[in-house]
Design a protein that fits this description.
- It is globular, with a radius of gyration of 13 Å.
- The protein is an alpha+beta fold.
- The protein has a single domain, classed as Nuclear Transport Factor 2, Chain: A (Roll).
- It contains two helices and four strands.
- It has a four-stranded antiparallel β-sheet with strand order 1-2-3-4, with helices on one face.
């Protein structure tokens, strides 16, 4: 998760696409040139150890003017962890 956040900060589309599950990977990533990420907070994790094939990470990524709160799902593909998808929990 932290490496993907760093890739968003650096606008490294190649890394993001390589670490995205082939089943859900977009054809390309378009970055907002005005977006300025300011921090990452991991709120929760589940599974995702060497003994698991799936895992989840709930995080809050802050940017100038707001924050993105996501519950992300990851799977192992050929031994590597890749991002599958995520949803946006209600912060109610």
């Amino acid at each position: 998760m932290r490496s993907r956040y760093s890739a968003f900060v650096k606008q490294d589309a190649g890394y993001l696409l390589r670490t995205w599950h082939p089943r859900t990977r977009p054809g390309r990533i378009d970055f907002d040139p005005g977006m300025r990420w300011t921090g990452l907070e991991i709120l929760a994790t589940r599974d995702g150890s060497a003994f698991h094939s799936t895992g989840t990470v709930t995080f809050r990524a802050s940017y100038r003017g707001g924050a993105l709160h996501e519950h992300s799902r990851f799977e192992r593909v050929d031994g590597a962890w890749v991002y599958v998808d995520g949803d946006f929990p209600d912060e109610g």
